[in-house]
Amino acid sequence: MKKIALFPGSFDPFTKGHEDIVLRGLTLFDEIIIGIGYNSGKSKRYFEVDFMVKKIEETFSDYPNIKVLTFAELTAAFAKKHNANYLLRGLRNTTDFEYENSISQVNRHLNPELESVFLITTPQFAAISSSIIREVHRYDGDVSTFLPYQL
Ligand code: ADP
Question: Residue 8 C-alpha to ligand 1 middle, in angstroms?
């Protein structure tokens, strides 16, 4: 059976840290679906979702086993719909861990076949966060070194 993982996130924007998790995930899974979710608990996006889909597709244009989709439902339900038995997530620090720990318990409760798999960040990408990139970009700072594509 094909091993399909869903890598869910806001990806506002998708960063080199995210790219690293996806590429390393490919050593474990046959296919990775990058799912851009609209989290109702979060405010409006900074980068348009369609723009981000295009940029992520461009980043992985050489990889037919990486897909980019958007979703507006429970992550566990979306994974099931796409036959993904794994959720791929990245961990940078203990703050990420606290959050990921509780969310993975809930996801498994919602879909018992769904196993969450966590990859520890590569040190050089550990400080990259979408929220900091948004702040820098908002004030016209150069964020190009943090992104795997041109804005
Ligand atoms: P969410 O809003 O669901 O937290 P994000 O787009 O911020 O979505 O992140 C998606 C996933 O990528 C999360 O598991 C997050 O911890 C991970 N991640 C974010 N930045 C990095 C990074 N620099 N290195 C490794 N993992 C990261």
Answer: 9
Prior bond to 13 cis, omega within 30? Answer: yes
The pair of structure tokens assigned to 64 is 């037919």
State the distance from the centre of ligand 1 to the C-alpha of 100, rounded, in angstroms: 10
Residue 45 lies in a domain: yes
**Cα(63)–Cα(60) distance, integer angstroms:** 5
Residue 106's CATH number: 3.40.50.620
pLDDT tens profile 30-68: 999 999 997 655 568 999 999 999 999 999 999 999 999
> Which residue numbers in the chain have pLDDT < 50?
none
Could you tell me if the CB of 35 is within 6 A of ligand 1?
no
Active site residue 42: yes
Total domains, the chain: 1
Q: Give catalytic status of residue 102 as yes or no.
A: no
150: in domain: no
